[in-house]
């Protein structure tokens, strides 16, 4: 009875382990290879170049700004209302006491000042209190371009004029024939996307390696269990021999017994993971793309690896218990 309880716990553990690995691995594959990833890059990084420098107007169409800090110590780029209107091509109204707070970070990470009505900004060794007219997430020239440009404060033209002592200049666009002076910071969309894609590939490879190790670890537990139960399993097969069971039937029964613990729960866990992820994916996308076929191919590869490990365990244990020979 104890052995049955132990086997049932082992089967459930292997089933859940395979379900989690297949589900998580599928989520990583589908998110990294999605057809929408290019449009996502375009939304997050709308321009090929973002260039900014201090104390220089390297282009006629550059936008002046100056640096400040919030009470929490966050760097904030302060632009005039007229510059902001020209950048986003829409009209806003601000009094001299009002500001608009904008974050270019990931929209999921953006916390819009938690309903604050006022904000304190430090710049030029001074501090200023403003009324927050609006706080929002908005991509103007690119997400995560620089820590200096993640948070933006829009002030009235008058406030900008009297406070913009230590000016910086910003330009962004798709031209590649601009002349960049020394000391000017240049961000390139192509390079940023390449780095991000490379990091995503590393994450995918790492998840695959961890998943395979977890799955093989489950198979290793089965192997240890078979070794620990050596005496009881040997006695069982001695009994089979004494009852007249043939060598072929003993071997067939032995392989089937290990398969019930090591391989069938694996198939059930993988199929369940594929079905659950497939339902979610179809609900979001409305169809199965070639990326999902690629994911299925990876699942088949994992199943083949597991079948190979199961077969190796069965062959190793068959030699250990001498299933093919007459028991001593």
Number of helices: 9
Q: Quickly count the domains.
A: 2
H/E topology pattern: HHEEEHEEEEHEEHHHHH
Shape: elongated
Span from first to last CA? 27 Å
Q: Roughly how many Å is the radius of gyration?
A: 32 Å
Strands in their spatial order, largest beta sheet? 2-3-7-4-6-5
Largest sheet report: 6 strands, mixed, barrel
> Which regions contain 5 or more consecutive residues with pLDDT less than 50?
none
β content, as a range? 15-25%
Mean pLDDT: 78
Tally of extended strands? 9
Q: What proportion of the residues is helical, as a percent range?
A: 40-55%
Structural class, from helix and strand content? alpha+beta
Q: Would you spell out the secondary-structure blueprint of this structure?
A:
Blueprint: H1 2-32, H2 37-44, E1 49-54, E2 63-70, E3 75-80, H3 81-88, E4 98-103, E5 118-123, E6 126-137, E7 151-155, H4 157-163, E8 168-173, E9 185-188, H5 189-228, H6 230-242, H7 247-262, H8 264-285, H9 290-321
Parallel strand pairs: 3-7, 4-6
Antiparallel strand pairs: 1-8, 1-9, 2-3, 2-5, 2-8, 4-7, 5-6
Helix pairs in contact: 1-5, 1-8, 1-9, 5-9, 7-9, 8-9
Transmembrane segments: 12-33, 202-224, 261-281, 293-313
Keywords: Membrane, Transmembrane, Transmembrane helix
